[in-house]
Amino acid sequence: QEKCILTGTWRNDLGSNMTISAVNEAGQFSGLYLTAVSAAEKPILVSPLNGSQHIDDLGQPTFGFTVTWSFSVSTTVFVGQCFVDDQGKETLQTMWLLREKVKSAEDNWKATTVGTNVFTRI
Ligand SMILES: CN1C(=O)N(C)[C@H]2CS[C@@H](CCCCC(=O)O)[C@H]21
User: For the chain, does the N or the C end have fewer beta carbons within 10 angstroms?
Assistant: First the structure.
């Protein structure tokens, strides 16, 4: 299928941009994530991402990727699916888990945030 190969640049509803490199024959990819908002008090920098998508099925594949934040001690994993509408427009419907480093195991309960997020190509 020609749609929903994730290579390219995407923007989400929080104004974050991500650029995904070539997807190899195993569906693996890497890229960069530039967030527009953050809870960290440090300047926002580009952060690396790695993931993989299904490429062997009949379109609208599922995928997952991990962003290791370069400006805060935290990590986000995304899972989702690419959908194509009847105009051929692709959207990535995702859910994410943001894990922030906490001082001790006693604080482990409050370390993970969850959310949903939609990306479209720019
Ligand atoms: C901007 N974001 C975005 O595009 N999301 C889908 C959500 C889930 S990752 C988070 C940003 C985390 C930045 C690093 C940190 O604040 O620890 C937020």
Answer: C
